[in-house]
Specification:
By secondary structure, this protein is mainly α. It has helices at about 1-20, 40-65, 70-95, 105-115, 120-150, 155-180. The N and C termini lie far apart (about 60 Å). Helices cover about 75% and strands about 0% of the residues. It is globular and about 45 Å long. The chain has six helices and no strands.
């Protein structure tokens, strides 16, 4: 039984790697019904969710030192707490599948951090709320909504669905802060 599980897991990892590399899985009677050509692939979601989560924690740590508004610092601390917990949950799910999370931030996220780091004072506060709080959370919500519908792994799908309310809450809080800062 344990050998069968190990072999099944190994086959799943090979298939996931092949899909991530752009290889196609032959369609036919033997192909699993859960393969959705063109849909969001599990490894693709894992990479995006991990990179986004890591970036939001780093950006929020920067905000803890750079923000002038106590409300923005409070928001940043909430993001650190929530995204650190979500990142840990994702890491556990990924490890259980014998996979690893990417070790570096995506290039676009590093550029956003550089942009934030160059801002100061109330400009930083507005930029952080607009970029991290609103724009990035809108993107995260769209990604997680899609993942909750399209991922093949039921545990990843459940995790994405379970994470959505917190992401929506973060967006709502950022929109309120943004309106108050005008």
């Amino acid at each position: 039984m344990k050998t069968l599980r190990t072999l099944t897991r190994a086959l799943m990892l090979v298939c996931a790697a092949a899909l991530a590399a752009g290889c196609s899985i032959p369609q036919g009677p033997a192909a699993p019904a859960t393969v959705r050509p063109g849909g969001l692939q599990d490894p693709q979601f894992i990479d995006a969710a991990a990179g986004n989560g890591r970036y939001e924690v780093q950006a929020s740590r920067l905000a803890m030192y750079r923000a002038t508004s106590p409300q923005v610092r409070s928001y940043a601390q909430m993001l650190i707490d929530h995204h650190t917990m979500a990142n840990s949950e994702l890491m556990d799910l990924v490890r259980a599948r014998g996979m690893r999370l990417p070790g570096v931030l995506p290039r676009d996220k590093r550029a956003k951090l550089d942009r934030l780091a160059s801002a100061a004072g109330s400009e930083f506060d507005r930029l952080y709320i607009r970029i991290v709080g609103i724009e990035d959370h809108q993107s995260d919500i769209a990604l997680f909504e899609r993942a909750s519908r399209e991922l093949r792994d039921p545990e990843l799908r459940t995790w994405a669905s379970r994470t959505l309310p917190a992401l929506r809450s973060h967006l709502d809080a950022a929109q309120s802060l943004g309106s108050a800062m005008r």
